[in-house]
Design brief:
This protein is mainly alpha-helical. The protein starts with 7 loop residues before the first helix and ends in a 13-residue tail after the last strand. The chain has two domains: 32-344, no CATH class; 350-465, no CATH class. The chain has 18 helices and six strands.
Length: 478
């Protein structure tokens, strides 16, 4: 974690929590994030305590560590399987090193499963875990609904005594707790009218989009990346989406068939996978961190299956030998590769850019950036507000609304940079993210940092005005 440079989605929440002028402003800004409030509420005290987001990373590491402890203590797997699971890609890298709310989802999911693995446990505590799981993100909400459906259909005869009996009042109280959590989460996630990210819903039948959606099954279960610098969110079968889709569907069908005698496992996996795939198709295809919830759905279902099934059962022998153990080894290999690449290369170029500005005593100069969403990790590291060429004002944080989140033509960016330097003086600096440039006949490119970053669009170009450039004569100071 100490060598991981946080990228924009990691530090964005920190900027909101640290610099919001009031609670009402903070809640309004968080509406544009598209997520419930549980993770922000946990991080808020830390953001108010310090300017260093390392505290948020420490909290995140504590959550990931607690998840690992739950696996070792309660998972119905062998010790070797637990080792492979904990040190696999999702639990040791994607949901451990990269600081997002997904680690909280994993902890609450595993906490729920752990309680359902303890004899004579009341239904209320596992229900509270599911309600909180729904409050982490939309994928957690879908998993909470899937686990509730499986739990209900498990019936009163479940050997652990945790099934819902229609005549058992605490059981229905538990159902109410989970449904309340789901409803509150949905209300929290409703976007404002001027929200600009992933606004469109797709309900028509599109064969290309359907193949792309089904491919997410393969990407989730076998997150083998393309072996290159920008490996993150890639897949080795990225050029063969139909092959990947067929392989993923076959694997899902195999799981459902082998586990068919365990209703809770089958329903949890079927509802979870259907809900997640429906969201990917209709709303947002997502990235590896989102696809990973398909793996979590399978993990939850297999946990329930192994909890209730003998090691020697035919379904378990086939799945464990043909799928589960090979899959866990693949995940460990991918985790090692991802960790090595994160150590060898900057995950984000933000640290390198901030270090360059400090080393050359540029950090206190007037700095304009574009786009703010991509450059905000630099703002966190410099602990200062930056002028955004997109909005035409100094911004404390980036918001996904029409005013802040829009792409400008290159000519407009150059004109605004020219006006900015004319207003602030020739000592002003402009920082652009990868893919945006300024005319070399008017601006000096001081640095392009770094040469390579895992998040490819978080490489930065740092510009200053050329001396005596017409149209950029600084205004006289009063």
């Amino acid at each position: 974690m100490s060598y991981h440079e946080m990228w924009r989605d990691e530090v964005g929440l920190w900027l909101h929590l640290r610099h919001a002028e009031s609670l009402s402003v903070l809640l309004n800004n968080l509406d544009y994030g598209g997520h419930p409030l549980l993770w922000p509420l946990l991080v808020l005290p830390l953001a108010r305590l310090s300017s260093d987001p390392f505290l948020m990373q420490c909290l995140h590491l504590a959550l990931a560590t607690a998840s690992a402890l739950l696996v070792f203590r309660y998972a119905p797997f062998t010790f070797a399987e637990k080792i492979l699971l904990v040190f696999g890609y999702y639990l040791s890298f994607e949901y451990a090193v990269i600081t997002r709310h997904y680690a909280l989802s994993v902890l609450l999911l595993l906490g729920h499963l752990s309680l359902r693995s303890v004899p004579r446990t009341s239904a209320i505590p596992p229900a509270i875990y599911l309600a909180l799981l729904a409050e982490t993100n939309v994928f957690g909400t879908i998993l909470a609904a899937a686990l509730l459906a499986g739990w209900l259909l498990e019936g009163p005869a479940a050997h652990r005594g945790d099934g819902f009996d229609a005549g058992n009042r605490p059981g229905w109280l538990a159902v109410g707790i989970v449904l309340t959590g789901i409803v509150i989460a949905i209300i929290d996630m409703l976007p404002p009218a001027d929200y600009v990210f992933a606004r469109v819903w797709y309900f028509g039948l599109d064969s290309g989009r359907l193949w792309q959606t089904l491919e997410r099954l393969w990407r989730a279960l076998f997150p083998i990346p393309a072996f290159r610098a920008q490996f993150w969110n890639s897949n080795v079968l990225g050029g063969y989406p139909r092959v990947a889709a067929v392989a993923g569907v076959v694997l899902l069908a195999l799981c459902l068939w082998l586990w068919r005698r365990q209703r809770a496992a089958v329903v949890t996996l079927a509802v979870g996978a259907a809900g997640l795939l429906a969201f990917f198709y209709t709303k947002h295809m997502g990235a590896q961190r989102h696809h990973g919830f398909l793996f979590l759905a399978m993990l939850a279902a297999y946990w329930l299956y192994r909890r209730d099934s003998l090691e020697a059962s035919p379904g378990n022998r086939v799945f464990r030998a043909a799928v589960w153990i090979p899959l866990l080894f693949v995940h460990v290999f991918v985790a090692l590769f991802a960790s090595y690449m994160d150590y060898r290369l900057p995950f984000s170029g933000s640290c390198a850019a901030a270090d360059y500005l400090r080393t050359h005593n540029l950090q206190d100069r007037p700095i304009a950036v574009y786009p703010l969403e991509w450059v905000k990790p630099v703002a966190v590291l410099l602990d200062r507000h930056l002028y955004h060429l997109g909005s035409g004002k100094v911004e404390k944080y980036a918001v996904f609304n029409r005013r802040s989140y829009r792409e400008l033509p290159k000519e407009v960016i150059a004109n605004r940079a020219r006006d900015w330097i004319a207003a602030m003086g020739e000592h002003a600096i402009v920082v652009l993210s990868d893919g945006f440039t300024l005319p070399v006949d008017e601006f000096d490119l001081l640095a392009q940092i770094p040469q390579t970053a895992i998040v490819g669009d978080e490489r930065y170009a740092i510009y200053a005005a050329k001396k005596n450039t017409p149209g950029m004569t600084p205004r006289r100071s009063r």
